[in-house]
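Entry:
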Amino acid sequence: MIPTQIGRYEIKEELGRGGMAMVYRASDPEFGREVAVKVLPPEMLHDPSFRARFKREAKIIASLEHPAIVPVYDFGEDNGQPYLVMRYMTGGSLAQRLQQGPMALPEVSRIVSALAAALDEAHNKGIIHRDLKPANILFDQHRLPYIADFGIAKMAEGTASFTGSAVVGTPAYMSPEQVRGGRDIDGRSDLYSFGLIVFEMLTGQQPFKADTPVAMAMKHIGEPPPRLRVVRPDLPPACQDVLDRLLAKDRAERPANAVEVAQDLEAIAGGRPLPLRLGGGATVVETAIDRTLAHMPAPVTRQAVPHPTPPPVIPPPVMREPARTPPPPVQYAAPVSAPTVAPAQRRGLGIIGWIAIALGVLAISIVGGIFLTGGFAKLAALFSGAATSVPATPIVPVATDTPSPAATPDALATDQAAAALTGQAPATTEAATQELQLTATASATASASPTPRPAATATAVPPTTAPPTNTPASSGPLATRRVQFVSAQRVGDNNQALATLSLEFTGGAGPYTLSGDGIASPITKGVSGTFIDNGVTYNYIHFEVASSCGAQMPGTVNIRDSGGQSASQTYFVTVNCP
């Protein structure tokens, strides 16, 4: 029988019940709002441990105070019945949403981003949820997600008397260490459960299936999860990498925190490369502009001095480009020395004199900044066609003895540099060339000349006999050679497999886009590597298709390069599973 009132709260209806609590929708007459009232089932009222756990849940949630955790409004006891009053969530649960089927990657990324910060907030305070599942993720009227039900949460200290070594949680969403009954559970256990939820949001189904709760729990220990892209081949391959880390059986191989997962999914959903990370999960934000600014000297302090000295000339890095007709050599006027102040004027320069000197120092600083950032190359583009009658002395840049530290480029920077080196990229303006110089790096693509040269000089790159991995082997027309079977991985219990194939080709300019049979949506990526056969250097790209073990699989794969060239290759392979 549903009570009519608990404390001051007027009960309207029952929202749900489980083995450890019942939840009612109620009205708060004091504040005129709807709330959710959670109470212990009658059979647990006489158990001191459950009463203590119920009170502890209220303290845990109150200590968090995070905008993505369902807040507690009140806690009390009415006629021996403890109750917990929380915000009433009108948007339903994630479990109800998943009944409609899988969710789009951007929507999954939005939910994960909102929940990740809340999860990390709890973990940073030593609180482990231990029962993350779709039913415990609720939405408000604006479809914003919240984490609910910290009823079996574990605090870092003082919980042995409540939890002991018993196995607690929901079998379908338990981590391997939870199933084993470990007492050293930490936040990485929640990350495993989080990964199961992400898999279910993307696919509309749970990773594991079993007939009994015990059999379900044991699958987390001994059975690898199904491959994501067998169920959703339209998703980017990087999604599989994120889930592989989240669902690792060894918690040491899982991400450092939930926000790291959110950052990865945001990057994938936005079509960006995954963030680079140092040990311990620290994120490295590395862009072409960041790398350029890192090598610039500290700003010059502007001082009014009688004889300012121009800064040393440092040549900008020059990128090797395909041979083309160079523009006329640019000559720069030799620097003019500042006038010497006559001894008769030592009594003072006056306000006008100091302003003139300050402007001169500012001009010299600007000129030095233009040299340091390669700005004269842009000026050359503007004035290379203009005639001048003023004799000028050319300035020859001198190489410095201190090498610039090399930075590792991201995939997009490498592909852009490779496209420029092969000569297949569309013709660019001088300004675009300067932007490309900021993107490429010497250590990964040999795109910067080892000896500094004037910025207006373009040097053709001779062909190499052993191109590095992920650098296109040759330029010229795009032509496919063949498709070969590489490997296959069994998925699930129905003889399904995810086959990895290799497309061999020559020519073109990366990045390349693949489409065709078994590829639900186009995939854009750089080359996986190169090899030499009968004196011909070939590129190859690995791609995955869903199949079944032992299948004789025919198909066609289409490839398109960044310059608009396209080619197709038919294949017939046998899927051999281990």
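The chain has four domains: 5-87, 94-285, 292-324+351-384+407-462, 479-574.
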